[in-house]
Amino acid sequence: MKDENFMANVTEVWSEKRRLMAPRVAAVLYGVIAIVTADLILQPGKVTYAEAAVGALLIGFAMTLTHVFVKVVTKEAEIGAHLPIAKVGTIIQDSLFVMVFPAIAMLVVAAASQSAMQSTLLLDAILYLGIVAVFTIGFLSSYVLDREIRLALSRGGLWTLLIFVLLAAKALVLMY
Questions:
Q1: Contact assessment for residue 152 and residue 142, using Cβ atoms and an 8 Å cutoff
Q2: Does residue 6 belong to any structural domain of this protein?
Q3: pLDDT tens across 76-103, in order?
Q4: Is residue 3 part of a domain?
Q5: Which range, of 13-27, 72-86, 162-176, averages the lowest pLDDT?
Q6: How far is residue 26's CA from residue 144's CA, in Å, rounded to a whole number?
Q7: Domain count for the chain
Q8: DSSP codes of every residue in the chain
Q9: For position 18, what pLDDT does the model report?
């Protein structure tokens, strides 16, 4: 009985538009995590602005390909057959959303190069944008399910906390 009520509530608030957006929102997260991870290992002044901009796009492209490969293999494992080309095309389209944050990072780098922003400030700016993006994606990925703000804030906060764990790990590594 509980499962039936739960499923009825799910179908009431869930829509086809939300179902289509969910994998795209998740895809953006791949790009955010990739850029934040790269940002954590970069040392200020070790790369030029051009190298940083191209690097952001290359990382985004690599993660886009990874996203495509994982989605295709996962879907094929679910259905037990090769995917038709049209379905692979849809996966590729959804996977292009991985490039959103790397493109934003590239634009931030380009703007920083024109303003002579110090590389430490640039890395911090990209990191802070990544933290905001992780919270926002966590929040929205929950909120679109049931419009429960408390649950959405919890997810966004938890995902943000995990980014801070990465930052703490970096700080520990740098201490030794």
A1: yes
A2: no
A3: 999 999 999 999 999 999 999 999 999 9
A4: no
A5: 13-27
A6: 12
A7: 1
A8: -HHHHHHHHHHHH--HHHHHHHHHHHHHHHHHHHHHHHHHHPPTTSS-HHHHHHHHHHHHHHHHHHHHHHHHHHHHHHHTSPPPHHHHHHHHHHHGGGGHHHHHHHHHHHHHHHHT--HHHHHHHHHHHHHHHHHHHHHHHHHHHH--HHHHHHHHHHHHHHHHHHHHHHHHHHH-
A9: 76
Enclosing domain of residue 68:
23-175
Helix axes 100-115, 119-146, angle to 10 degrees: 150
Among the listed residues 94, 21, 74, 97, the one whose alpha carbon sits nearest the alpha carbon of residue 83: 74
d(CA 153, CA 103): 26
Reported as a single tens digit per residue, the pLDDT across 143-169 is 888 889 999 999 999 999 999 998 898
State how far the Cα of 148 lies from the Cα of 122, in Å rounded to an integer: 35
84 CB contacts (<8 Å, ≥6 apart)?
Answer: none
Tokens standing for residue 133: 């993006």
> Which tokens is 146 given?
């049931």
